[in-house]
Structure formats: structure tokens, C-alpha cells
Amino acid sequence: MEVLKPKFSLDTGKKILTGKQIQTAKKTYGEAKGFYKEIDSSLSQDTLMYEVFSYEEGDLKVSGNLFTGLTVLYPVLVKGECNMTRGHFHHNTNCAEIYGGLSGSGLLLLMDESHKTWAEEVFTGSIHYIDGRLAHRLINTGEEPLRVLCVWPTTAGHDYQRVEENPFGIRVFKSGGKVEYR
Ligand SMILES: [Fe+2]
After folding, report:
1. What's the mean pLDDT when you consider all of the chain?
2. How far does residue 131's CA lie from ligand 1's centre (Å)?
3. How many whole angstroms separate alpha carbon 71 and alpha carbon 146?
4. Cα(92) to centroid of ligand 1, in Å?
5. CA triplet 28, 132, 87: central angle to 5 degrees?
6. Mean pLDDT of 79-96
7. What pLDDT, on the 0 to 100 scale, is given for residue 7?
8. In what order do the strands lie in the sheet with 77-78?
9. Domains detected in the chain
10. Range 136-155 average pLDDT
11. pLDDT value at position 111?
12. pLDDT tens, position by position, 4-51
């Protein structure tokens, strides 16, 4: 029997995905500033807000194929607002998603179709089943980078516009080390 190396793996030291086909993307404050309630002119446009390592395989338009991603969300405050991902609904609301907390601490913000907003606690070892009908966003409420592994169908699609038109009902801030929901 032939025993092969896996196509990609988790570098347990750096806590990133490694492998020949891993793609990387970065989001700077300049690109992300529209996500937050207020503009923070004390932050450089080049401040790194999050990085995503991803693995793709197969025909992405074929139902049943999966994407894998690892998001590293840095502990940056934007005028007191905790750093977060852009947040999205799936275009195909039949497509669920799994998140797994690898390190750091934060929240998985969820919103249903009636704009009810709530969160699940994200921590090392937490696993989250995200129903395909829910909007979802990661928020770093801790002092360390929040690292989350994500697996979702390639046919899910990211509907950012729907979240921009129907924003999450809660924003998360940190003041004097205390997390506040507004
Ligand atoms: Fe998603």
C-alpha cells in the first residue's frame, strides 16, 4: 500500500495551514475600515487585521466539494470595537459550515433571517455548526490572535451585500479590558 503525505496540514507551531496548494490572503485596515462603526485615524492603513489560508480542490461549482480555510484574526481595537471579519450569509442557504477554534478567544456572531443576533463563544477546541441560513462573523475579544479552522461547501458562496443591507444587530467593544455588547 502506498502511504502518502497529506496534501496540507496544520503547522502546530505557527498554527497556519501549510502545503503546496495553500493560498493566502490578507486584509488590512485600509481594506476593512468599512466594517467598523467608526474610522480610527490612529491606525495605519497597512495594519494587518486578518489573514486567511485556504485549500481548494476539485470543480468548485460541483455540489459536494469542500473549501478549507484558516482565519487568523488579530487582536486590534478600532475606536474600542473588537476586530472582526466582514461577515456574510451564504448565497446558497442550504450550505452549512463548520468552524473550529484553534487558539485565542472570541465570539462567533450569528444572525437569522429576522435579524435576531446572538453569539457562540470561540475558544481552543470549540466546534461550531453554522446553519446555512445564518449570517456569521468572527470577533476577537481576546489579547492573542484568534485562529479558526473553517470547512464549507464550495457552492455556498459569500453574500456580503445581504449583511451590508441588513447589518448584525450587535457590535462588540472592549473598554478597560471588559467586553461590551452594543
Ligand atoms: Fe460562511
Report:
1. 97
2. 10
3. 8
4. 10
5. 20
6. 98
7. 96
8. 77-78, 81-82, 172-175, 178-181
9. 9-181 (2.60.120.10)
10. 98
11. 98
12. 999 999 999 999 999 999 999 999 999 999 999 999 999 999 999 999
Phi–psi pair at 16, nearest 5 degrees:
-130, 165
Grid cell at residue 83: 476586530
134 C-alpha to ligand 1 centroid (Å): 9
Biggest distance spanned by C-alpha atoms of the chain: 59
The strand pairing partners of 97, in sequence order, are 130
pLDDT band at 56 (very low <50, low <70, confident <90, very high): very high
The set of cell numbers assigned to 138 is 468572527
Cell of 86: 466582514
pTM beyond 0.70: the answer is: yes
Separation between Cα atoms, residue 45 and residue 65, nearest integer Å: 36
d(CA 120, CA 122): 6
DSSP 62-88: STT-EEEEEEEE---EETTEEPB---B
Amino acid residing at 79: K
The neighbourhood of ligand 1, an ion, using CB within 5 A, equals 97
